[in-house]
Amino acid sequence: MDAVQEELDDGAETHRYVEHALAVLGEEVPVVNPSGSAKEIEKNLLESLDPGEAQALAVAEVTDGMIVTDDGDARTTAVQRGVDLTGSIGLLVRFVEDGRIAAETADAYLKRWIDDGGFRSPARDFDVFLDE
């Protein structure tokens, strides 16, 4: 998944939380090469999405997997195509629920993303997302 790996590498350089998320997930992040059918879907998706989102969404669709993205267009397309999705906040919730990080740490990350990175969130306090 060259396009996805490139976006992860670029994101880790400018957003430390991406680097931390990858470190926490470690080998749990599967790296796959798109199949022929995924490549066809990817080609069509490139008309409206960036390469990383198009490739990730195509693979998720073919494998009945999940895409992790905060990109609005990719999220809309995933919903339209019936592909499961989550975003940065969803990952934080999973990390807390799995005991990988404390809720206080997730709250600090969310606030840092909002204050330092311009991250748009429906709520500023992380606890709101644990109640859902």
Summary of the model, kept short:
This is PIN domain containing protein. InterPro entries: PIN-like_prokaryotic. By secondary structure, the chain is mainly alpha-helical.
Describe this structure as you would to a colleague:
By secondary structure, this protein is mostly helical. The chain has two domains: 84 residues, no CATH class; 42 residues. The chain has eight helices and two strands. It has a two-stranded parallel sheet with strand order 1-2. Helix 5 links the parallel strand 1 and strand 2. Helix 1 crosses helix 2, helix 1 packs across helix 4 and helix 3 crosses helix 4. The N and C termini lie far apart (33 Å). The model has no long low-confidence stretch (mean pLDDT 84). This is PIN domain containing protein.
Shape: globular
The main sheet comes to: 2 strands, parallel
Number of strands: 2
What percentage of the residues does DSSP assign to strands (E)?
under 5%
Helix content: 55-70%
As residue ranges, the low-confidence spans are none
How many domain modules? 2
Output the keywords.
mainly alpha; 8 helices; two-stranded parallel sheet
How are the secondary structure elements laid out?
Layout: H1 2-14, H2 16-25, H3 36-45, H4 51-63, E1 66-68, H5 72-81, E2 84-86, H6 88-97, H7 103-117, H8 127-130
Parallel strand pairs: 1-2
Helix pairs in contact: 1-2, 1-4, 3-4
